[in-house]
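Morning - magnesium ion inputs below, output right after.
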Amino acid sequence: MRASRSAQRRPSARSRNNTQSPGSAGVHISGAEGIYDDTEITGIISAYARRALRHPRGRPDEIVITIEALHRKPGKIPLLPITTLECNAPDEAYVLIFKALSDLGISSKAISAALRVLTAETSMRGASLIRIRSGRRAEPDRIRGVRVSGLGIERVSGRRLSQKLSRLNLDTTTVGEALVLASKVASCPGIAAEICISDDPDYTTGYIASRESGYLRIPNIKNHGEMYGGRVFFIREDAAIEKLMDYLEKTPVILY
Ligand code: WAQ
Ligand code: MG
C-alpha cells in the first residue's frame, strides 16, 4: 500500500509539512507491505485503507494497493533479537548512534551523510543506500529510494511476537513491522547496518539494526511533532547495487 497527497491540489500541504519535492508523485503519507494467505487478503486491504485514511501525517488523496502472486517460494529467515537502549533526548540519541554505527565499521562521514538524509525536510518513500566508507549515496532514485517488499512473518512466530511485544507494552503493529523489515534488510548480503527514524510526527522511537548488533531500539531519537524521518541502509563500499535491490525489493522472505 502507498498513500500520498498531491501538493498541487492542496497548496497548504507545503507549508504544513514541507515534505513535497519537485517532480515527485506527491507528499508521501504512508506505505506498508506484507505476504499473506489468500484468505487474509480482503481483511488486509481494509486494514491498509483504514491505516492510510487515518494517518498522523495527514489525509492522502491517493491510495494505491497492489496485490501480486508470489512466483517464488519464500526463503526463511530468523527475526533479529530486540534490545531497547536507554535514551532521553535526540542529543543523547546522536551519541548512541555514532557509537553503535562506528562499532559496526561505518565511517563518521557515512553516519553524517545518513543523518542528513534522515532529518531532511523531504522524506523519501523508501530507503537511501549509503556506502560505509566514502559516505556516497548509491540509490538510483533519490526521491523514491529503495522500497523493501516481499516480506512477511510466519503465522506462529507472528502470534508469539505480538504476545511478546504486548507484554513489553510496545505498539505491536509498528514495532512488529519494523522488526520484520529490519530482519530482512540485515540478512541482505552487502548491507552492514540500517538506521531508521519514523516519519510519523507522533512516533519518536527509532532503531539501528544489523546482524551483529540485532535490533537496537532508540527512544526519543526525535522530538514529538517532527515530520522528518526515513531509512538508510549502509552498504559495503563495493556492493553491487542491482543485486542488492533485487533482494530487497523482489526476493520474497518469511521471517520466523
Ligand atoms: N522500504 C524501505 N524504506 C521504507 C519502507 C520500506 N518498505 N517503509 C518505510 N520506509 C522508509 C521511508 O523513507 C519512511 O519515510 C521511513 O522509512 C519511515 O517509515 O521499535 O514507523 O513507516 O519502536 O514511518 C520504528 C519502530 C518505526 C521502532 C518506523 O517507519 C520501535 C516507522 P515509517
Ligand atoms: Mg510513517
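Note: The pocket of pimeloyl-AMP (ligand 1) is lined by residues 31, 33, 123-127, 145-148, 174-175, 178, 181, 196, 198-200, 203, 205-207, 217, 229-231 (CB under 6 Å).

O.
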